[in-house]
Amino acid sequence: MSYVHSVDTFSYKNIQAQTSHVGLTAIEHNSTIDDYTKMKIKENVSLIKSMRSDFTERLEKTIYQSINDGGGVGSIAKALTKTTQMTNNHAALIANDQTGKILGQLDGYRAQRAGASKYIWQSMEDARVRPKHQALDGTVQIYEDPDGGDDGMQPGEPIRCRCVALSIFDL
Description:
By secondary structure, the chain is mainly α. The chain has helices at 2-20, 31-46, 53-68, 72-84, 88-113, 131-136; strands at 118-122, 140-142, 164-168. The longest helix has 26 residues, at 88-113. It is globular and about 50 Å long.
């Protein structure tokens, strides 16, 4: 649970830092956050096209168990390699991707519950940023817009995306 707690705490602090400037409060950890996390892990794993369907359930369990055991990205990658026999590089890609996705999703979930309906797409602004995300950098996007962001995805959701959403709170 320490890794889930770390990701959850990081998400909470991100949103709390944004909401405190406008007198709002972010949602702290609760059972709804747990249910949301489990649902999003299931959805995120289903997006991995390189996995045979018989591995996806095992992969979900491996990711969730590794996160709950507090091992972090390295531990998730190691567990994936052991459980699914995938290569170290592929396991590291999936571990990083799944962590980035759930963090971005938790941030978006909390921001929306605190009253944000829009966000600013913020890239890392370095040479590794993909062209589409360079174009999105600094633009105002609407949460839950199926045509917004990167084909409807928010920062952190596209594979290996390091971008973040800077929530906009209307008063």
